[in-house]
Recover the amino acids of this structure.
């Protein structure tokens, strides 16, 4: 590709950067969620602890949605296509 | 097999569509090739014949292809012209199709390069003789959309947000666990269906290539592709395919698309 064909639309770049940052945050959030569910299934957390963790993750989830809304990022944009490896986050 | 550097803009290049096992350089008068080039002709390369067209080099530079790649309609026109020539050749002779955008600086360079590959072309001709390529794509039904959680529905007004009631966190994690478990079950089921279909086709195929799955950009969001493969089938077994697809559809409940017969593009070996 020649440089003259590079699309340097700064709004677009800003949007893509926000989407990338939010994708990474969402990845971490989902990993924490999975880890929490795994620990619950192992049975080493009390109901009170589970509720606290769940509440925190739920609030994070809500906050993510608000951030997406504020920056005009659609939830399905929070993903990366890793080619033959599939996508970074589960697609559904 | 491309060789292209910077060159003067009005130079000519030689586009190679296919290599055939034709006894003599034949006429392709009725097949148009690319609109921008000269007539199609045969180029004798040792014991094989290449189907070639002289084209303006400027229309076939890396930059020109790069621009075409981002314009699906334009790319399709070129791909169809290429495929049309390849299909016409394959209808007459045993043919090895070459990939889109196979270009040489001139006849001598083309002949030299193609003769050097004679052994590979011979092997491909032998392997694909009396065989055709068939594409198989399998789609699973889309997952049901999950209900938004009560917690998320309730958080409509950011101003009045307060700490959720006790138990809300528990319910949230339970819901997430359910989603996760359903996703894993669906995933396993998809793999199982894809393997079932693939195994059934392998039974009747001479060779197989698993291709990369198409994402929702190509398939649409209403269905999920779980198998994208292509099989080299003996021509005398082609009649078995339609009943096989019907049987697999009934057995797995999946949507199965069969396409073919194609010129065996995927089975000519590395280029």
């Amino acid at each position: 590709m020649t440089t003259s064909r590079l699309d340097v639309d700064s709004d677009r770049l800003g949007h893509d950067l926000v989407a990338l940052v939010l994708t990474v945050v969402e990845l971490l959030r989902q990993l924490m969620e999975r880890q929490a569910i795994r620990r619950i299934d192992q049975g080493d957390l009390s109901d009170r602890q589970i509720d606290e963790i769940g509440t925190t993750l739920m609030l994070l989830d809500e906050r993510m949605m608000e951030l997406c809304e504020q920056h005009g990022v659609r939830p399905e944009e929070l993903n990366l296509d890793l080619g033959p490896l599939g996508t970074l986050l589960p697609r559904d | 097999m491309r060789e292209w550097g910077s060159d003067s803009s009005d130079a000519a290049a030689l586009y190679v569509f296919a290599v055939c096992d034709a006894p003599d350089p034949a006429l392709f008068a009725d097949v148009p090739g690319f609109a921008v080039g000269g007539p199609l002709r045969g180029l004798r390369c040792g014991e094989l014949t290449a189907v070639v067209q002289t084209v303006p080099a400027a229309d076939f530079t890396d930059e020109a292809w790069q621009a075409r790649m981002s314009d699906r309609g334009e790319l399709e026109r070129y791909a169809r012209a290429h495929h049309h020539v390849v299909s016409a050749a394959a209808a007459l002779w045993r043919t090895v199709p070459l990939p889109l955008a196979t270009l040489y600086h001139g006849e001598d360079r083309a002949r030299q390069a193609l003769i050097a590959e004679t052994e590979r072309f011979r092997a491909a001709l032998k392997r694909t003789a009396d065989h055709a390529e068939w594409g198989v794509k399998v789609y699973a039904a889309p997952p049901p959309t999950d209900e938004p959680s009560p917690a998320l529905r309730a958080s409509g007004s950011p101003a009045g947000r307060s700490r959720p009631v006790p138990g809300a966190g528990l319910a949230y994690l339970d819901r997430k666990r359910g989603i996760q478990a359903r996703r894993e079950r669906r995933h396993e089921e998809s793999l199982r269906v894809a393997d079932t279909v693939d195994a059934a086709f392998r039974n009747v195929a001479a060779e197989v290539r698993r291709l990369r799955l198409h994402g929702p950009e190509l398939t649409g969001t209403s269905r999920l592709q779980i198998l994208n493969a292509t099989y080299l089938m003996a021509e005398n077994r082609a009649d078995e395919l339609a009943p096989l697809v019907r049987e697999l559809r009934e057995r797995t409940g999946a949507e199965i698309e069969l396409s073919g017969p194609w010129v065996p593009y995927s089975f000519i070996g590395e280029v």
Observations:
- Chain B has eight helices and nine strands.
- The helical segments of chain B are 62-69, 72-92, 107-116, 118-128, 150-154, 168-204, 216-219, 241-252.
